[in-house]
Please model this.
Amino acid sequence: MIETSVFGTCSDDILSAFTEHKGFSIRETLHTNVKEDNLPSCVKDTSTLPDEAAASEKCIVLSGINGTGFEVACEAIKKSKHLFVCDIFGTTPEKICKLKKLQKEAGVNIHFSRAGRLMPGIMAAKRVIRNPVLTELRGSIQLSDYDSQISEIRELLFKMTDAVLTLIPSNHRKIHVKSSSTRKGVIGLVSIRIEFENGSIANLLLTTVSEDKEVTARIYSTGQSCSTDTSKSYITVSKILFSKTGGSLKNITFPVKESKYLLKEEIKGYHSSITCKSGYSGNTEYVQRWVTLTHDILDKTVHSNHPGTD
Model:
């Protein structure tokens, strides 16, 4: 059993998945239960590791690396603790670079959870369409005040860019961003085009017009396309079938695994990487690409946002 301490406010789904996994033992002494008979969702918030955790724990589960969480992460790695970070929000390219440097020196595993960001339908689409030529995603943002809207755009972008990078195994080459705004400076529409080194294209559209809050996606490759969104338990694949009489279009549906299942698989893989020395040291390389791309797009969005008309 791997002794584990949790710091910060983590989702009940993540704590449940850790508790149900036979390989992890969560330290109850560091928890504050919200309700009796419920799994803990809030734990001791501190900028340093308690002495007991520094002495015995092999793994640290951290809610995020925003604020004092980054200090805890650095200290945990220096004390040879494997790290599981529950939320990507608040992560910056600079923080990832420092964590990677400390990780290399300490020889530990760092894994950032994608729970809550990753679209299950995208994982299903990835198994069907291996090399997409064009990926299109659409999501909606609130028409609120500027500061609140930037935070919401960042949140939505993390979900969209994770979907894109999951589907396209290549580094991005160019980013083109166009955004419009009202006279009050509130963003009304953001159009993003990402060109990848392998020739793939991803188009992202953030709009305030749609009433549908779900992120929708269409993925195209030669001879077939796929559609999915965050509300469906299946994906639809349209495939061109050729026969002696010509081509015909056939729609096929594939089931989608639930988010909780993907989370359990994520934690199972994390446990295996620690205990079996599988060679997987975590996903910091991927997260660095993910965070860098998201921040580049956000920076271009803010700077391309010029007052327009209501």
About this structure: The first helix runs from residue 12 to 20.
